[in-house]
Amino acid sequence: MHHWLIPVWQPLLQGVRERRLGHALLIKGMAGLGKRELAGKLATALLCQHTNNAPCGMCHACELTAAGSHSDLHVVGREGRSIGIDAIRELGRIMSESARLGHGKVAIIERAELMTEAAANALLKTLEEPAGQATLILVSSQPERLLPTLTSRCQQWLVPLPDTHSALSWLNEQGVTATPAALSVNQGSPLQTLEYLQAGADDKRLTLLGELVSLGEAPAGLPQVQARLLEQPVHLVWVQLLLQDALQTALAVNAPLKLDDCREQSVRLARLGPIALHELGSELLELRRRLQPGQGRPMNAGLQLGQWLRRLQQALTHS
Questions:
Q1: CB 162: neighbour CB atoms within 10 A?
Q2: Phi and psi at residue 14, to the nearest 5°
Q3: Looking at the chain, which terminus has fewer C-beta neighbours within 10 angstroms, N or C?
Q4: What is the pLDDT of residues 35-50, one digit of tens each?
Q5: Which domains can be identified in the chain, with CATH numbers?
């Protein structure tokens, strides 16, 4: 188990052994912290036949859970873009039945924020009338998207971000060279940062941001920069963080930069001045909002980004 999960796991395990956990729990926190792993460990402990020493790892229930074949453990939400009402109704039916191994039933709803409103309301009925020893575990990286009536019926367990030093130490132990900047662009998530570094995305970020700031001297590179920014939504996040650092530099704020490995680019952008940087940042934020899933991708997304880049290019040329 990842070390940053232990402070949450220990009281959860104690609650299992003392039989004082509620029938509905919400495990929440940033993406890339291992919440799914934590929910799986909790399910194993709840289904263990030796509650006082759960999870024992030796009983029949623990062996079945480890093999992924425990008949009283059910997981939904692992695939697909949404969790519909049919899946939740079927889960409610399953949870209302008696446990086949006689030691309770556990259901895990991963990415719970993807439930449709109808599915969430169906789940609410299940929570209002819990069946026997049934335990429901919701896992979410965006708990604010869940119905308040749903979250209010759950014991909530927050998985906090590890501190920068321990996260970087863990990443280095995984055989990657990690920097505070790489951690920042992944919102402090060690697992996301590991995937990001292994994919070589950090070099891509440095190259892309360098080309962006060079648009004032190399205007012919605009179409290429525009195409790269549209490849993935996270590329615009990189630009947003750089603009924030530039604004901080322009205002002479004495605080660490988010992208400390792009200090030269931040200083270059800072010459645009606080007002121009604020306007560019606000415009980019609105563009990112329009490109979010569920907002409907505008047909002229490329055109809008191109216009924004030309404004940036013009500002850089005259700075």
A1: 21
A2: -60, -40
A3: N
A4: 999 999 999 999 999 9
A5: 3-160 (3.40.50.300), 200-317 (1.20.272.10)
